[in-house]
Amino acid sequence: MLHSITSASRVVYSIVLGLLAAAGAMSGSAGAAEPPAGKTPGSPAVEAAPTESVATKRPIDQKEKFGFGRFVSFKDGTLTLENNAGDLIVWNKIPESAKALKYDPEINDYKEIKGTAAALKEVKPGRYMMVGEKMAFVRIGARVEQVRGTFVSFKNERLLTLGKDLPESFTKRYGNNLHYSKFRDDVPVYESVDGGEYKLIGTANKVLGSVNEGTLVIVHGEGDDNITLIQIGEPTKK
């Protein structure tokens, strides 16, 4: 069964505010465990990939600054990620002293992995990652979450929904209007018609403008403002 957002403050800020591009910098240590993430039967398994060849993009040197994005490559000590704006960001000479922290869904927390370079060489393209200030740590993966709401509008390539089952602490401060940042061009959209199974209907920026007001919309994200897929409607439970 699809699950709603919990009332834990870390979930509120990492998922809701993160999706609204308001998440702040995170600490360099492995954070405290969050409530276990629920299972999502029927959700399509999608690992988004950059749509533009990385060879056509000019990398931005992050030096020792904090940053996050989706993994592109790790070669000769240089880590390259693609951020939410589609830019390539790089950290040169990642030190072996940097803590490699990999998200483990079984414990809903990060585990430190010995051998930073070896760990980075095993990361698959498209995986969400974060690099801490002064390259103190590298986080691999993040909690996968979803935000449910009803469709209001899609104008200027920005989605507006009325959030469902939001924590009271959040709605008292921000209300239940959820304004999303512009989606990447490759974010897939799946639709359930008349309670049927989800089927791919296109990408967010091309199809959301035709959604009817009041329709259920489920936005999936992994990490800060990193939308991975959107579902319209919901299959009938059997």
Structure, briefly:
By secondary structure, the chain is mainly beta. 12% of the residues lie in helices and 34% in strands.
Please, could you describe this protein's structure?
The protein is mainly β and 238 residues long. The protein is built from 4 helices and 15 strands. The protein folds into 2 domains: 62-142, OB fold (Dihydrolipoamide Acetyltransferase, E2P) (Beta Barrel), CATH 2.40.50; 145-232, no CATH class. 12% of the residues lie in helices and 34% in strands. The model is unreliable at 1-15 and 17-51 (pLDDT under 50). This is DUF5666 domain-containing protein. Residues 30-56 are annotated as: Disordered.
Q: How many runs of DSSP E, i.e. beta strands?
A: 15
Low-confidence stretches: 1-15, 17-51
Give the SSE string. HEEEEEEHEEEEHEEEHEE
What share of residues is helical? 10-25%
The structural domain count equals 2
Report, as a whole number of angstroms, the end-to-end distance. 11 Å
Class from secondary-structure proportions: mainly beta
User: How many whole angstroms does the radius of gyration measure?
Assistant: 18 Å
Give the strand line-up of the largest sheet. 1-4-3-2-7-8-5-6
Contiguous helical run count: 4
Whole-number average pLDDT?
Answer: 81
Give the strand content. 25-35%
Shape: elongated
Major beta-sheet overview = 8 strands, mixed
